[in-house]
Amino acid sequence: MRVFTLIWFGQLISLIGSGLTRFALGVWVYQNTGSVTQFALISLFAMLPSILISPVVGVLVDRWNRRSCMILSDAGAGLSTLAIALLLFSGKLEVWHIYVAVAVSSIFSAFQWSAYAAATTMLVPKQHLGRANGMVQLAEAASRLLSPMLAGALVVTIQIQGVILIDCVSFLFSLVTLLLVRFPKPKTTPEDEVRQSWRLREFTYGWTYITARPGLLGLLIFFAVINFFIGVVSVLVTPLVLAFASATVLGTVLSIGGSGMLVGGLVMSAWGGPKKRILSVFGFTLSGGLSILLAGLMPSVPVFFAAAFIYYFGVSMINGCDQAIWQSKVAPAVQGRVFAVRSMLALASLPLGYLIAGPLVDQVFEPLLAVSGPLAGSIGRIIGVGPGHGIGLLFVVIGMLTMLATAGGYLYLPLRLLEEQLPDA
Description:
This protein is mainly alpha-helical. The chain has two domains: 1-180, MFS general substrate transporter like domains (Growth Hormone, Chain: A); 202-425, Growth Hormone, Chain: A (Up-down Bundle), CATH 1.20.1250.20. It has helices at residues 2-33, 36-63, 66-89, 95-123, 129-179, 200-211, 214-244, 247-271, 277-297, 301-329, 335-347, 349-368, 380-383, 389-411, 413-416, 418-421. The longest helix is centred in the middle third of the chain and has 51 residues, at 129-179. The chain starts with a helix and ends with a helix.
């Protein structure tokens, strides 16, 4: 675990630095444009390129040295961040520059995620994969919790340019940790051998590998469905909380969510998760759906606090167990391609959730629970009527759908028995 821990620490510092830049650029765009749409486009450009390029990235990660892929990723993302800093210093920064830089960083992050996940399998003993993935979730939670607080203070003292330069230093630190270690090469079988030709089947191999294993396909579809629900909810958390509380409360809710994720990461890294990881995925997804339902059904500050902690605690446990399942069931030599397809398909539903959430609220759910809306005399008597209650109703629907999807996943035997029926790679 020592080599992995060193790499993990470098990635932790890099994640915190990236969180500082993400916060600072968001502030800059919103202050200079006053447009929520232009602000939201940052999230779209941060995710979409990574999803689209995943099949190519998977092939390259399996062909190249995975340490080299991570070095390339950190170097590329660091240079794009440095370009933004230089444009800021020269007073020539435009909003479209940020979109381009974020898109470039997104492409490099696709290499980073696939290579990091595949390298973990080679660096960490199988029995410690749960702990290792708990540490990864811990790093993500630390970034979510610390970056906004640090960035808020640093923007005032050293301005946005200084914050972005700190991010560049964090990339450099991550690069140094990668240069200090060596990764073992994955063992290949004739079946796993990567052919040195750019044939179509190299790009479809990950999909073929997954579809040949019903349990893995079921797991992929399950997360694609759940991620769609997450996309809808994540966009609407801010307007839901602000409809019933102040901006200060919103900040506290987000911090409590980060704390829940941090605690979940600590528990997962110390414990390693249960022996039957798929049951943990089902259980914590169910509790997440229940917390979403309660936040919509009883919108109040104490409920928001409890729901945020429970939900994000579960996120760490779910992601840690899910990642450990894939790492133990997929042959190391092909993990780049398989994980890339998994990432592309599982995350593709997130932008769809982002896009559909606004129209659903504005045109359907808020009018339904307006003071004189169609449901004011029925469901409105339970949830309430007026601004924000339509979002609450959508949360109730999403929470129920999440629990139904969990029940469906549990009833699908190849998924529930995935760990018993599919041998470890």
